[in-house]
Amino acid sequence: MNLGQMMLVVGALAMLGLLTLSTNRTIMESNKTQNDSEFGVTAVSIATSVVEEAMGTMFDAAIGDTNVGAVTSVANLTAPLSLGHSVLESYRAHIAGTRDFGDFDDFKGLFLVYKSPSDTASTAGSDYEFVVPGIRNKYFARVQVNYVDLTNLGSTLATNPRSWYKRMTVTVTTPVPRIGSAAQQLQDSLANTLVFPAIMAYWN
Fold this sequence. Notes:
By secondary structure, this protein is α+β, with helices and mostly antiparallel strands. The chain contains 3 helices and 5 strands. A 5-stranded mixed sheet has the order 2-1-3-4-5.
């Protein structure tokens, strides 16, 4: 084999290497786009379903209590630090001897897991786990509820004063494996997190 043929072989191998790298990069970018799109659609669906379920309940325990009478003052509403469900309540009454959530703030602190039928492992600390056919990744939904502070609408403090408005924040994440630098891991983590707020109001 002469020098010219060797140069042609080396050039062909170099082009093959570049083509392989380019193909791999395209496949990885395509997979990332697909995963990001799937996460966006699934996360919004999960968050929306949680909010809609909560919106179907009473604004506050005091509203549904027939012994209280007409609620005309925010002072009659649940204290800010007491928002959440009681020990006699559980999500969808899945614990024996309990009743289902009856008001909006009962969802505070709720931790839901959505997973595929092939995922048989339980998640520590979860309140309820949904098995969803066709889902590829595991999704976590965490719920917080607080009063809307009318003097500081962006405040999410648990100590916000009582008002006729409650904000629910549903945070949906997926625990995908992280690779790369700390900055890349943070970027991936933010890309796989959806924060979905909703406000419920009571008009008396």
